[in-house]
Design brief:
- The complex is a heterodimer.
- By secondary structure, chain A is an alpha+beta fold.
- Chain A contains 29 helices and 24 strands.
- Chain B has one domain: Alkaline Phosphatase, subunit A.
- Helix content of chain B is 33%, strand content 15%.
- In chain B, helix 9 crosses helix 10 and helix 10 packs parallel to helix 11.
- Classes of the chains: A alpha+beta, B alpha/beta.
- Chains A and B meet through helix 14, helix 23, helix 27 and helix 28 of A and helix 6 and helix 7 of B.
């Protein structure tokens, strides 16, 4: 959304930057720099804060603004004070210099328009107060319905509406444009009695508490505005657009006792910049890690990592902040195999976290088989792999698995979960089969992901890909289909914007309905079980064309992309194809896809949840994510290429075994994190270990009968295939996009004691245990075989001895060996990938 | 989840239920009707509701026709009959329920919005209209979470699985959604079958006590290596659940609770030997043992969905077993002193059209429909709200699903204005009324 902010009226004199002092610096300065490096200022009172940052031998960058020697040349164009604040005096160009401990740095500022003063503008003058003082926060007046009868737009995104709500009163109603009871928040006749002043100063009771004091600069500014008649001010047609907001420095790493002053810079479309450090609202996502004050001074509280959210009018951005313990002197250099390692290890270095060592062959073998093929390696293969001396055996194994039929099974399963291939959706076995086949063929033929997306979004007629839109049981509406496609393919959750402007993000309700309109002509032919876009719009069963109507304005919505561009009439012959093209071309597409694929291998996305990209949920490794997105797009969205890049990286090969520096780390990939097995994979794993196939029966309503022997659980469509085990272990019934691994629960535990997978399978005479016993294998051989089958490793000597002694003591050898197998498949090591 | 272990409360001196039930009836002798009494009592604060501890939902899936059951109208082929509450009439096809009228009330002004089964199921089981973005916790899961576990009994049970004979792809409407899979329902098979047993609560006979001990020992050995390296809260939780599960499996009381053979033949006959009757009997047994919320779902999937031959199906297949089991349940609960502490609710996902269609059937109708509710401190013998003369639209005192839930939550001592925070950051009312507000308890009832 555009926010028209006229350029730079200087801030009323805010508090002078206090500035921290370099602590614990050990004195060995390696480099010096000034940020922001280049600014272009305009206006009679233009000013800019600069920061001097010094990189030390211990790897930390510290704030040296108050210690460095500062100067500005030429001296008549601008003044520079000891806190690093530059104030314009005349038009011209200046260089700001800093010196400290023998090192020097410089920044430049171009200054213009010092003879001009700017006309008043409500958005520029009052909007920032509403943001900075938290008035328009999403849990206060910026919430969907406002609070206490007073409504503001989140982040002052809509200054015209804010103005109306303040001057006239009224609130937002979800299903109508009617504004309800109107109570003006200002009183032009008695300005000091305005609610807009009395409430935030607690002169009258205010649920939000005191936001500023009477007589403070913010109070004064509002009062002046009301006294002058509360104008809206000029909205200059040519005023430049806010392009982006930058936070300096970013990322930030502090050690205990450390602090850093921030500078927040607004960059405009005409090249002008504005220092808005004192005008924005700072929020630490995790206040246990850092504190931040109103003026942008960050102080370390405790080791950890968090995001700092900066809310400016019309935009919110984030900075990554970490607090570390004592910096490590001789940080070991880890081998880097590809670009992933570059980014991951660079961040670990910055945060003084040492990555774990490489995984053992056992760890890696089990992990890669489960992650690529959803299966456990058979004992013979484990022995082979462990014994092999081939230095390239891991890479070769990766290739083997990528080309295996199990890979096709497993990734069909994952995509089927994502694209919701269910019987409910398709309603006849043939139609369900068509949809599933489409997914499977796409995986088996290596169909590029953008092509999959295009077929899915724009499918027409009897294509397998679009069968999912035929939702007889769910009667899916266009807005639900659109919101889901956006979530799946762009990683953004627009859903809340269906009824109102999104409470946390800058998605407006109009954007939501504009996107919905692309699906406005969707109709179905019941007997043929197909969907297509009817040229005239409308549903074959209804007289009226189905139009997409905006629920508040009650007008028909026109198809418009998220960037606001309305679909021209030439594109309206096939709106969903145009939408597919736009989605695929969007930078969101590749980053969302890369993020999701990444998440499969590490248990969390770089943005987590993987389909919830938000300014308040920033990526932990933004550059890595951008690099992956670029890689994926450059490789024409070949899934196997991206997967290969990930699993060949050293990062992926790290062990789960922690060291002292990375025990707590769960988000920086310093070690592998254990992930619970999905229900279908766990069931297949138990079947493999016990060597007893699961017998799947099809639901009576689909005709009953049994699945062919040996069908893996990952190939079963959930509703067609009843399975108490999988229900207890939280398999996705595909009624909603996948939402993360199942939590341990009572029903799983009951099943573990008494369910057939844990009882009958283990006791079967024809299973692995029965066969081994019949062949005369010793206790030791049996234990080893099962360890290899279940955990891809041999038992440690200690484990083996203890187990042997327990087994030897029992009378009923068969029974106790069954108990052993039970223990193995119930263990956490078995139930998790690690 | 709070695990509360205390003696079964239902013997704690609630006294004989019969005395209480005669009281309401005696009003008519004094020439005062129920509604007069209510009007009088509105001016003083209502008596503090006794705290219910469990709830039974009798599932009438498919949507029962209100004009043929609780809200008799001219278009119905059934005549209204008097109940043992003067002035209150229900369908002649529910004679036994009519004689239990003082134990329960009917709400005739229910109003909801979804017109189809899958969506209606979500709406009446969770209070929210369905959306693909997220799933909502069902009322059973909410009650399980709020009330906690007791006596090692699973807190929320569905008996039997309604989808046994047909697709029931919206089983998720019965589940816990984001509040945690530990509040999912334990779904057990058909108790009317001779080979009935709860699979996950019965160890195979081949697994004796020594096996259980050995399994635990061996598990510790096998787990040790890994858990020395990597310990997480999740593993601890699994340990806890495993212990709890074992207690459940080995507990004679739990086994007994699920064992209908402990019931007399007379009792089983009273409920009716059909699926619905036995599921209602099982429900009584389970709440007696400490279960918090039981859904008795003995009718076939969508059996009440009478788009054709509505009257015939009601008369022959649906109302007799319902009438029998419903009245037997109320009486049985009362006899055992459980009615004061058990809310009983009979409902489907909506009602049916007030007019008859060309197939002699009635179609879906959420605009105005009825539910029956009683027990747990909820006043009996009331007819709350009114429909218009055809039973088509609400004439008087609309009640939403949220209001109904609020009433039940109030009886159970749960704060009905509460919200849960969903994973997408949207707070979700546990008693959700139309317009995204918290429902209000029906004051005529509690």
């Amino acid at each position: 959304m555009r926010f028209r902010l006229c350029f730079g009226l200087a801030l009323l004199a805010g508090p002078v930057f206090a500035g921290p002092y370099p602590k614990n610096s050990n004195g060995d300065l390696r480099a010096l720099r000034i940020v922001p490096e280049r600014v272009s200022l305009r206006g009679a009172h233009a000013s800019q804060h600069f920061l001097v940052l010094g990189k030390f031998a211990d790897g930390l960058e510290r704030d040296l603004t108050n210690s460095a020697t500062l100067s500005v040349t030429p001296a008549d164009i601008a003044k520079l004070d000891s806190s690093g604040r530059l104030t314009a005096q005349a038009d011209g160009a200046v260089t700001v210099s800093a010196r400290y401990q023998g090192r020097a740095a410089a920044a430049s500022a171009a200054i213009g328009g010092t003879g001009e003063t700017l006309p008043f503008s409500f958005g520029r003058e009052i909007g920032p107060i509403l943001t900075k003082r938290g008035c328009n926060g999403s849990n206060c007046h910026g919430s969907v319905k406002g609070k206490g009868g007073f409504k503001l737009s989140g982040d002052a995104l809509f200054p015209k509406e804010d103005y109306k709500w303040i001057v006239e009163g009224g609130t937002f109603q979800v299903l109508t444009t009617d504004e309800g009871v109107k109570r003006p928040r200002i009183d032009v006749k008695h300005p000091e009695k305005s609610l807009l002043l009395q409430k935030p100063t607690m002169t009258v009771p205010h649920g939000g508490g005191r936001r500023f004091a009477a007589g403070s600069p913010d109070y004064q500014r509002i009062l002046n505005w009301i006294e002058s008649g509360a104008p809206y001010g000029a909205e200059e047609q040519n005023s430049p657009r806010l392009l982006r907001v930058e936070v300096f420095p970013n990322p930030i790493v502090l050690n205990s006792g450390g602090a850093q002053q921030l500078v927040v810079e607004a960059r405009f479309s005409n090249g002008q910049d504005l220092d808005i450090t004192n005008e924005v609202l700072y929020v630490a996502n995790d206040p246990a890690v850092i504190k931040i004050n109103d003026d942008g001074l960050v102080t370390a509280v405790k080791t950890g990592e968090t995001a700092l959210i900066v809310r400016a009018p019309g935009q919110a951005v984030s900075a990554d902040v970490g607090v570390i313990e004592k910096p490590i002197e001789n940080y070991p250099v880890a081998e880097r195999r590809n670009l992933i390692d570059e980014y991951v290890f660079a961040k670990l270095r910055r945060y003084n976290i040492i990555p774990s060592s490489l995984s053992s062959d056992s760890e890696f073998l089990r992990r890669i088989c489960l992650d690529l093929a959803g299966t456990l390696p058979p004992p013979e293969r484990v022995r082979e792999f462990l014994a092999s001396k081939d230095p390239h055996k891991r890479d070769k194994l990766i290739e083997t698995l990528l080309n295996s039929p199990e890979f096709v099974d497993y990734w069909t399963f994952r995509l089927s979960d994502l694209l919701r291939i269910t019987h409910l959706t398709h309603s006849t076995p043939a139609v369900t089969q068509a949809a599933w086949n489409w997914v499977r063929n796409s995986v088996a033929t290596g169909k590029p992901y953008d092509q999959i997306a295009r077929e899915r979004i724009a499918g027409q007629g009897a294509a397998g890909s679009d069968r999912a839109y035929y939702r007889i049981q769910e009667l899916l509406t266009p807005q639900e289909i659109m919101a889901e496609q956006v979530r799946v393919f762009l990683g953004r959750r627009l859903d809340c914007a269906q009824c109102h402007n999104h409470p946390f993000e800058n998605w407006s309700q109009n954007q939501f309905w504009g996107m919905t309109a692309f699906y406005g002509r969707l109709t179905e032919v019941r007997d043929g079980w197909v969907v297509f876009d009817s040229p005239n719009g409308g549903h074959v069963n209804e007289n009226e064309g189905t139009k997409v109507i905006h629920p508040r304005t009650k007008k028909e919505a026109q198809p418009a992309f998220l960037d606001g561009r309305v679909l021209p009439s030439e594109g309206r012959d096939d709106p969903r194809m145009r939408l597919a093209d736009w989605i695929i071309a969007s930078p969101y597409f590749s980053e969302a896809a890369s993020n999701r694929i990444w998440g499969y291998f590490f248990g969390r996305g770089i943005v987590e949840p993987v389909d919830d990209f938000r300014t308040t949920n920033p990526p932990t490794h933004p550059e890595l994510l951008a690099a992956l997105a670029r890689y994926f797009r450059e490789h024409n969205f070949a899934l196997k290429d991206l997967i290969r890049l990930i699993v060949e990286s050293r990062t992926y090969h790290l062990s789960t075994v922690p060291n002292d520096t990375n025990r707590e780390d769960r988000i920086n990939y310093s070690r592998a994190v254990s992930r619970p097995l999905e229900a279908a994979v766990l069931l297949d794993a138990i079947s493999r270990v016990t060597a007893v196939d699961e017998e799947f029966r099809f639901h009576k309503a689909t005709g009953g009968g049994a699945a062919p022997a040996g069908t893996p659980a990952v190939n079963m469509v959930p509703e067609v295939c009843p399975s108490q085990f999988m229900d207890a272990y939280g398999r996705s019934m595909r009624q909603a996009p996948p939402s993360g691994p199942p939590a341990a629960n009572l029903l799983q535990a009951l099943h573990m004691w008494a369910g057939p997978a844990y009882t009958t399978k283990i006791a079967s005479e024809d299973g692995r245990l029965g066969r081994l016993m019949r062949s005369g294998a010793s206790d030791r051989q049996i234990i080893e075989e099962f360890y290899l089958a279940a955990l891809a490793r041999l038992p440690e000597p200690g484990e083996l001895d203890t187990l042997l002694s327990v087994i030897a003591k029992r009378q009923d050898r068969r029974r106790v060996l069954q108990d052993f197998v039970w223990a193995l498949v119930s263990s956490r090591e078995f139930a998790y990938t690690h | 989840m709070n695990y509360v272990s205390r003696p079964l409360p239902f013997r704690a001196g609630y006294g004989c239920g019969r005395r209480d039930f005669l009281r309401a009836g005696s009003l008519s002798l004094l020439g005062i009707s129920m509604s007069d009494l209510l009007r009088a009592s509105e001016s003083q604060p209502a008596p503090q509701a006794r705290k219910a501890i469990a709830c039974i939902l009798l599932l009438m899936e498919g949507g029962p026709s209100q004009v043929d059951t609780w809200d008799p109208k001219a278009s119905s082929g059934f005549k209204p009959i008097a109940t043992d509450v003067p002035g209150l009439h229900i369908s002649e096809a529910l004679p036994r329920s009519a004689r239990q009228m003082r134990k329960f009330s009917v709400i005739r002004s229910m109003h909801s919005e979804e017109r189809n089964h899958p969506q209606g199921a979500v709406e009446f089981l969770t209070g929210h209209r369905p959306t693909p973005i997220m799933k909502f916790p069902s009322i059973g899961s909410i009650v399980a979470r709020e009330m906690g576990l007791v006596n090692d009994m699973p807190p929320y049970v569905v008996v039997p699985q309604p989808w046994e004979y047909d697709f029931f792809s919206y089983q998720e409407a019965f589940q816990a959604a984001f509040i945690g899979s530990e509040y999912n329902a334990l779904i057990i098979p058909d108790p009317s079958k001779p080979d009935f047993q709860v699979p996950d609560l019965s160890l195979p006979k081949t697994i004796a006590k020594e096996a259980i001990d050995d399994r635990q020992t061996l598990l510790k050995i096998v787990d040790r290596h890994y858990r020395e390296i990597e310990e997480s809260a999740e593993y601890g939780r699994m340990d806890k659940y495993r212990e709890q599960a074992l207690r459940m499996i080995l507990s004679p009381a739990v086994k007994k609770a699920f064992d209908l053979s402990a019931e007399s033949e007379k009792t089983k006959d009273a409920y009716g030997r059909h699926r619905f009757g036995q599921s209602a009997l099982m429900a009584r047994r389970l709440v007696e043992a400490g279960c918090r919320f039981v859904t008795a779902a003995g009718f076939k999937h969508g059996q009440w969905d009478t788009h054709s031959n509505n009257e015939k199906t009601l008369k022959n297949d649906l109302l007799p077993p319902f009438d029998q089991a419903f009245s037997a349940l109320l009486q049985d609960l009362a006899d055992r002193g459980l009615l004061e502490t058990t809310v009983v609710l009979a409902m489907g996902e909506f009602g049916r059209t007030p007019y008859v269609n060309p197939n002699r059937g009635r179609d879906h109708w959420p605009d105005c429909w009825s539910v029956a509710i009683g027990g747990g401190g909820i006043r009996g013998g009331q007819a709350v709200g009114a429909s218009d003369e055809n039973g088509a639209y609400v004439k008087d005192r609309m009640v939403t699903i949220g209001d109904l839930y609020a009433t039940i939550f109030k009886a159970l001592g749960i704060d009905w204005t509460k919200t849960y925070m969903s994973p997408i950051g949207r707070p979700v009312y546990i008693a959700n009324a139309i317009g995204d507000v918290a429902g209000t308890p029906v004051s005529e009832l509690i």
